[in-house]
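Dear Dr. K.,

Following up on our conversation at the group meeting, I've run the structure prediction for ABC transporter ATP-binding protein from Lacticaseibacillus brantae DSM 23927. I'm pasting the input sequence below exactly as I used it, so you can double-check it against your construct before we proceed with anything downstream. Let me know if the numbering doesn't match what you have in your notebook.
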Amino acid sequence: MSLVIKGLGTRIGQQQILTDINVDLHPGEIVGLIGRNGVGKTTFFKTILHQYLPNSGEIQIDGTNVTQDPSVFPRVFYLDDQNLYFAHESIRFAAQFAAMVYPDFDGDTFWRLMAANKLLARQPYRFLSRGLKAYVRVSLAVASGSPYVLLDEPFEGLDIIVREQILQLIVQEVADHQRSFLLASHDLDELDGLSDRVYMLKDGQIAGTYDLESLRQHAQKLQLAFKADQLPEIAHQGQVISHRGRVYEILFSNYSDAIDAALRAGHPILMEPMSLTLTDLFKMNQEDNQ
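The predicted structure tokens came back this morning:
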């Protein structure tokens, strides 16, 4: 049971947007997808559902190639926010249409979630606040029953109350029903504490896959400063995250006792360990080869 994308490529007009994308999503996990604006995150989601047809590669849903059997598409939930089918309709219309598309749609669950925020069936979606619109979309995802859920920027611009509600819905569905969520988000702090794994998309390709907990077992970020305002040679085995005056933040991906001893031999006036974050990895990746 998995959603597997192999060697996926997407061309729009004469421009190749995605190249050789390999991603997998397994039951009971939350996976992040990060990258700069315009890098192709939304295009990737649309290609999975064949809103854009791939020009290479393969998409398998629970072992079935979607090109050979499109009937498996409802096992993946995705809403295109730019072309939302109920943008000018009522919440009732959104639920009725979803029930036709997703065979396992649970209307009782959906209306229970609406009642929790005092949302009524007759209310027009377009008149809701930004946060409640996001809440309706995630509630549709939860009620869909689809084992694989794709959410594009689910936390963007939300107040803390709605954000917490959405986080709770996602975590509960993963824990209780072993569903899987792929979240494209600019909110790296949110993904840092939520995701089991994170894919980084850069220049239309997957530039890296990160498991922060595993990475933290071997990596070390340090704040360092030396009297001579010059880094010792051993420091160049790491990557500079930031530099202010004589103070450096450096990430060592494979920190060791030998590196530690060599740094201390340089008599640093400041040598403090720091928490490694997803933001650090993002900055590192964007600076590579520039």
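Two things stood out to me. The chain has nine helices and 14 strands. The domain at 3-85+144-210 is CATH 3.40.50.300 (Rossmann fold).

Best regards,
J.T.
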